[in-house]
Amino acid sequence: MSAPTEPVPTPAVVIRIAAGRPVRAVWVNELGGVTFEVGGTEFVKVGDAHLLAAEEPRLRWARRYTLVPEVLAAGPGWLHTARLPGYSAVDPRWADDPQTAARAIGTGLRRLHDALPVADCPFGRPSWVPADAPPADRPVVCHGDPCSPNTLLDDDGAFSGHVDLGDLGVADRWADLAVATMSLDWNFPTGGPGGFQEILLDAYGAAADVDRIAFYRRAWDGDQPAAG
To answer: Where, by residue number, does Mg(2+) bind (predicted)?
Structure first.
């Protein structure tokens, strides 16, 4: 997921929802989906109908317990939400302060994992988590796509919410932590390989589980290893 580098056509559904308010494309994902900001207070995601249909009920459920966007409306291939306060952890304002971003990501994941009730979660495991994963260190309701852009920070650099919960589901907490720490290397390469992992895990409150981290990173990359 990244900011668009060239003009993006505005779909008719976004124009209708905007009703004359300013519109700008703010994110483009690897599948061609686009997120549009509307009037500075709302967002409309347009893309794969199946993925967005999966995200809508997850947002509605998770919002009962934690800081995620409110769903305003939805339809085939689009999802309209209210804006949460804050800025993505990969916003340019954090480019020179990746330690703050890493800390907020770790804090946010811990709050998410503590807040969402596993026993009441109506969703299965995240789509990329293998059925033969090792026994869980701690089962939680995972974000499912905990890459850096999906954590929001407020003006003071504190965690303020999560976005993009289309793959939310129950799994070992290390499914989220393995990907979140790996994502730091993609988004904040100035720290070198693993440079800010310790900060994130310290904020979360866990020491690195090397074996589980390796397993879930391989799973995320599409290499489905047998449980060991």
So the answer is: 150, 164
Q: Which residues of the chain have pLDDT under 50?
A: 224-228
Strand partners, 54: none
Task: Exactly one of 96, 132, 145, 209 is catalytic; name it.
Answer: 145
42-46 vs 34-38, strand pairing mode = antiparallel
- Torsion over CA: 93, 32, 179, 55 (sign): positive
What is the reported pLDDT for 227?
Answer: 34
Please tell me the pTM assigned to this model. Answer: 0.92
Contact present, 173 and 166 (Cβ < 8 Å) = no
Annotated binding-site residue? 223:
no
The answer to whether 172 is a known ligand-binding residue is: no
Q: What is the model's pLDDT at position 17?
A: 98
Confidence (pLDDT) at 204: 98
Chosen CATH of 87-220 out of 3.90.1200.10, 3.40.720.10, 3.30.530.20, 3.40.50.2300: 3.90.1200.10
Looking at CATH, the fold of the domain delimited by 12-82 is given as Phosphorylase Kinase; domain 1 (3.30.200)
